[in-house]
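ERR on first pass: missing label on line 2. Operator R.T. fixed the label and resubmitted. Corrected input:
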Amino acid sequence: MNNERRRQSLGFGVLLFATILVIIPVLAIVILILTKGWGALSWQFLFTMPKEGMRAGGILPAIVGTVYLVFVSILFALPIGVMAAIYLSEYAKDNALTRTINLAIINLAGVSSVVFGLFGLSLFVIFLKFGVSIISGALTLGIMTLPVIITTTREALRSVPRSYREVSFSLGASRWQTVRHAVLPHALPGILTGAILSIGRVAGETAPILFTVAAFYLPNLPTGLSDQAMALPYHLYIITTQIPGIPETYRYGTALVLIGFVLIMNITATVIRSKTRKKK
Amino acid sequence: MKLSARRIREFVIEKLIFLSGIASIVFVALIFIFLLREGISVLKTTSLGSFLGGKFWYPISSPAKLGILPLILGSLLVTAGAVLIAVPLGIAAAFYIAEVAPKRWRTILKSCVEVLSAIPSVVLGFLGITVLVPFLKNVLHLPTGLTAFSGSLMLAFMALPTIITISEDAINAVPREYKDGALALGATHWQTLYRVIIHGALPGIIAAAMLGIGRVFGETMAVMMVTGNAAVIPHSLFEPVRTLTATIAAEMGEAAKGSSHYFALFAVGIVLFIISFAINLTADLFLNRGRKR
Amino acid sequence: MRDFVLKAVPFVLAAFIFPACHGSTEGPQKTQTLQIKGSDTMVNLGQAWAEAFNKLHPKINVAVTGGGSGTGIAAIINGTCEIAESSRAIEEKEKLQAKAAGFELHETIVALDGIVVVVHPANSISHLTMDELRELFMGNIKRWQLLGGQDRPTVLLSREVNSGTHIFFKEHVLRRGKSKGPEEFAPRALMMPSSYAIAEETAHNENAVGYYGLGYISPRQKVLAVAKDDRSPAVAPTIDSVRANTYPISRPLYLYTRGDPTGIVKDFLEYALSPEGQKIVRDTDFVPIK
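pass 2 clean. output:
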């Protein structure tokens, strides 16, 4: 028996070691960006335009551009994604069509981000003649984030007890009435979680916006959907690889703003998720 | 009167719902069609064999040399390196979190993994080129720190959350009876893990690994910033390489619409799409096999 | 009801946003935007011009983007910019593409540039001939020893294929002045995303050798003197040696426009060629043409 105990301690020790190897870099990354980037954060950094060839001043246009892109892409993806999840959860039968839809969702989720960029370029920028613009970038990002919304909404819908639906049907309600009144309201927090997670994901993507909306430098903020825009992830890329003379704190500061935004989104989503779990 | 107005509205809404349902299929098909539309024209100047097997990628020369073999091998090498690091590490961490960790630690560990999954690719690339690349060059005495290995490390970080969470789901899905039965027969916790739970969770774990591989293969920004971008057939993990994804991202800006370079980049996109499709199909098969049990 | 409102809100908001689609250029202030794209080598020069020009003409906003000479020329052909900066001359196929789009590309030489070859300060080599450069960047010289230097591997840094600097170096150094030929950069050459990236890697890597425009010279890298052949003296790249054409790797820098320049495009071009504009050329470490 002692042999087994020893083997167990060894085995568990290896697993613990592996976990530590995973956790330490995460903490190191967060601490590094936080400590080196914190110094750059200021009212000026977050709310003014860049100066001196983007080596000074602020990153406001990148922040605004990202906000526009995120807003419009969710505007597009949320209705379609929620309705698609409703279809899969409430209406679809177990047939070949449903299996194909599920396969398509998994594939959409696995497509490379730069392939989305190519797709956005050829469909929105060139074929539909939207040009390099916020609408092209946002639609591309929206399609990219659709699987996330569909999957989280579907989970939210599934977690609503079947009895709710059964009671509604027994009272004579149609399927849509059941969905709308008995199911959807209870799935709302889960749907919200999915939307917020999507926002975080969309904000951090670079490759899909490279050829569809991203601009190196714009003297003004974008005013409409047909404008080009700067964006945080692309801005971080160019100040790291293309522009000499940028203070290191600026680079870390931009990274901090980006990662901070994404983490805030994720934390909000997690808090909503755990609050609703506690309720049940 | 009221009844028929409501019926019409419901009819419209339910049709919209159905259309949204099939939207995913439509989008996947659209992606493939639009890639094909442009990419197929590369065959006007290059045969399929010399495209896929050609050893030199000189897209702007006349005549253009459009061989993507070095790019395919570059992607494969970086992916293989990442998988070798991330799969064992991720599965081990998943087991620890799901089975061994004390309950209090479980939420903290899971949060850390979620934080890792939230870090955008470009931020990892930024840290990679700023911190990791000089470090590797000095510590490993390499000619340059911009290598496939740097890319593999970055990509391993990106794949770990996927592998860990899906493996964890698979482990938790193993019926309690399996575990209780084994323990009742006198097995230690470790023996139970090692012989019983792994067996039950295996299809899910394989699916997790495959989805991780798929994620890594399609990564763009982090690899573009740290792998050196040399379109050469790699001889070791510690040399610069160029991936399919980085090639598209770096060169698409210049390719004039309708040039052979432009078509070639779309063709590279098709190759990426097909490989991702294959990986995801396989992962899905394993996931379903796991669930049916 | 609640979820219906939730779903309707996005569409209502969209109805407000879509009208904003049209007319970012029509506003009460009537500011015009000039879009300049292209050469990474010239992007700092372009931005310096843009800032100075904007001070003289506050209603004209000049936006400058890099991406490489090829990107700029592609953009002007596709109609997404008004001026293309290029560190190389346009090619036949680009002339044809412009013609197919309905215009001719108008060329203006605005400055001269030397392409400098740099190594790490600890590299013992201080000059090379054109032939040695050729062999080096084609990948045939794998260790610095073979050139009389230290026993270290050669790490070749190049720009991406869309860079005018890349193309110019390939044609004038690797192909000895011919635009077509079998010579290419070695497959193992690293394609760096910008001149800045080349400068950084060279400053940190004792094995590296790279090339970029005169404007990127800094004390962190060692500039090599280049000899035309092994009978000629090695010449260091300076403003004077480039202008006198004694430095073997020098080139004109171009601005391209669609057809003959008119309006604000013409104003900008005239500014670039004016004494103030040419002073800015000198300040950004390029060679004025006057």
